[in-house]
Amino acid sequence: MNISGKVAVTGVGYSHLTRDPEKYLGVDAVQACRKAIADAGLVPDDIDGLITFPEPGDHSPGVALRDGIEIVTPRYIFRALDLTEVSWSRIDHVFIGNAFIEAANAVAAGACNYALVWRALTFPKGIRYGQTTQTQASGREQFSYPYGYTGPGPASRAVIYRRYMDKYGATREDMATHIVNNRNNALLNEKGYWYNHRPEAITVDDYLNSRMVADPFCLYDCDIPVHGCAAWVLTAADRVSAAPNKPAYLIGYVDKGLSVRHVSSSPLEENQEAGLSAGKRLWDVTGLRPTDITTANVYDGFSLYVYLWLEALGFCGEGEAFEFVQDGRTKLGGKLPLNTSGGNLGEGRLHGAAHITESILQVMGRAGERQVNDASLALCAVGPPGGQTMIFSQNPL
User: Fold this and answer.
1) Domain presence at residue 166
2) What CATH number has the domain bearing residue 232?
3) For 120, what's the count of Cα atoms within 13 Å in the CB-facing half-sphere?
4) Mean per-residue pLDDT, 209-222
5) What is the dihedral of CA 346, 377, 258, 145, to 10 degrees?
6) Residues above pLDDT 70, as percent of the chain
7) From CA 338, how far away is CA 325, in angstroms rounded?
8) Residue 257 lies in a domain
9) What is the pLDDT at residue 127?
10) C-alpha closest to that of 237 among 33, 49, 10, 13
């Protein structure tokens, strides 16, 4: 949808991101929300719209969902912020990008004046990606679960990556270029896990020799689960004059591409089809083209998604992304600065929070050492190919 000139982001807030939490998730969520509200120059009672994607993710199957501990709902935030009244509230069950878009629609439609969106996520100790407690498997699962191919974990994505490598001739050395550059970006991100807890650069050899998780995915191909929260405040464009910071305008979005159930663990070609559908629609609704974009932040729950999104969005042709990320093209100062915050691989796994936030901060001119020169248009892609795509601008085009 083209929403140009109607909605702006005026506040961003983060809690501390950690893998060893000392507080309940609700405490960190309230901290992030208060920071976002203050960043927008508001007080909690100004907020009259609430929405989140509260689901715990695939890393915690079977864990009881206690509000304020494993999840943080609008009811929890309403009470914790001591709000008196809200005119619009929602829980989204698709993804954080979809919740963000729903908030933008609510603001544009006048359902609320100031919408607060947040993504709070925790990672229980002892839980691993794709881990399941199932003792029986039926249907198609009987041919996969006994062999460790369980749901949306690294094993299912590794099959897609192997297919990509075999089909187009990509190598792990090609991916190493992106991973090393991505870590360098992460070490400039004061919010991120690696910056705060392990400020260590990595080399190509570090990547190639790291522990294999699900061949060809090694440790550095998988995002890092964290405990914490990110939050944003959205309002109508005609209200931004009261905000203390330069706003980020939402120009347009696509809430999802071709609908393919469980596309993230579907064959490579179905992922590509879904991504191409999302990309085509984004350019159609905004009237923009890939060459207009000054920086891009694309989802990287697993490193392969960077390749698939670059191709789906038309920054390069099919099967060309592994070459596109070479020669400094996607570095800060390159033709297309990519995932300048470090994304999920560098900031931490709050699903698409890193990508949304970085796109907003770049067009606000508030990205610090990561700031891209003339970051007039920032593209954000959230989720596996076919997920939510958004474009933010310095100006209400």
Assistant:
1) no
2) 3.40.47.10
3) 31
4) 96
5) 0
6) 92
7) 9
8) no
9) 62
10) 10
Report the 3 state secondary structure along the chain. CEEEEEEEEEEEEECCCECCCCCCHHHHHHHHHHHHHHHCCCCHHHCCEEEECCCCCCCCCCCCCCECCCECCHHHHHHHCCCCCCCEEEECCCCHHHHHHHHHHHHHHCCCCEEEEEEEECCCCCCCCCCCCCCCCCHHHHHCHHHCCCCCCHHHHHHHHHHHHHHHCCCHHHHHHHHHHHHHHHCCCCCCHHHHHCCCCCCHHHHHCCCEEECCEEHHHECCECEEEEEEEEEEHHHHHHCCCCCEEEEEEECCCCCCCCHHHCCHHHHHHHHHHHHHHHHHHHCCCHHHCCEEEECCCECHHHHHHHHHCCCCCCCCHHHHCCCCCCCCCCCCCECCCCHHHHCCECCCHHHHHHHHHHHHCCCHHHCCCCCCEEEEEECCCCCEEEEEECCCC
Q: Report pLDDT for 128.
A: 63
Mean of pLDDT values over 173-197: 97
pLDDT confidence tier of residue 242, bands split at 50, 70 and 90: confident
Instruction: Please give the residue range of the domain that contains residue 232.
Output: 2-124+225-248
Model confidence pLDDT, tens digit, residues 10-67: 999 999 999 999 899 999 999 999 999 999 999 999 999 999 999 886 544 555 689 9
pLDDT of residue 265: 65
Residue 268 lies in a domain: no
**Is 101 inside any structural domain?**
yes
Pairing verdict, β 49-52 and 88-91? parallel
| Tally of structural domains, the chain | 1
